[in-house]
């Protein structure tokens, strides 16, 4: 007969759907995780203990070997005293007691030294890991409003100093990225608000009139179409910029000269309309890249060179392979107004239109454009692992150089 304890016990172990072993593991107290400082201290203590034990054993063994080794033959007396055996036994007892006492004293001293070494190791580990604590605290404080803070760790140029400098550089890049993002969002909001405001104003002015003629309706429709087209172009440019800032995942082999030639075909009508003096030097420049993005970058460079040129001015386009074929280079130079070399780098910022840039409304006489052309070029260059630079020409205008790894 069965008392039923077995089945009841089995049912009790699974009645809550959890195996008994799992519940027992959850009931066990969890030990706190050891910090790096504690692990270093324990490592120092263990290593010192092992070394001390080896030293004590070696010292005791040598001591035993020296005091218990037999006397040389020439030191043994020829005539033995009647009490010789008693003296030898007493001597053995004295040596045993001395060896045992030496072992006890050595072990006590070893324990004291291990304790002191553990305390010293704890202090040394704290001193060595203090930069890590500072880095951890800075990482916890890091936010979009505290990215301007820097560690600037003092001390020698060791691994921890290098880690702190790397963390400072990362904070600097993040701070610049957040600042650029805030500027971009603010500028994009303003640029998108302008065509919408123009559309709304045109509609409200027309609707508010007591009697609207067909010509007025057509004029309003034209204004709305222009504003809508401007917003559409801006949104398209923003999408291209966002796509350009990603890493290239599907590169193909092509020639930068062919890409530049296609971009030249797109601006041929504008070049003839403004009677520009065109100089083309398209030498072979093999490149492995995303052809679509690179075509947009080349087209933006040429369109900017035409838009910001003067009638009858110079437009020079050249491609070449540099550094023994390791780079493909596209150079675009144009005439135009004299630019301040100190502010040339600002032209690559989103929505920057050179001397026509204004944060309120579009300046009078500013060339048409969204102000994203050179920003897209820079994003495309970075996505391909290259770079783009601009240099103000003394006689006026700009020289932009796009360098891509071949």
From TrEMBL:
Residues 1-21 are annotated as: Disordered. The chain crosses the membrane at residues 42-64, 102-125. Keywords: Kinase, Membrane, Phosphoprotein, Transferase, Transmembrane, Transmembrane helix, Two-component regulatory system. It catalyses: ATP + protein L-histidine = ADP + protein N-phospho-L-histidine. Its EC number is 2.7.13.3. The keyword Kinase applies. Residues 126-179 form the HAMP domain. It is an enzyme of class 2 (transferase). One of its GO terms (cellular component) is plasma membrane. Residues 187-406 form the Histidine kinase domain. SMART domains: HAMP, HATPase_c, HisKA. It is found in: Cell membrane. One of its GO terms (molecular function) is phosphorelay sensor kinase activity. Coiled coil: none annotated. This is histidine kinase. It comes from Actinacidiphila guanduensis.
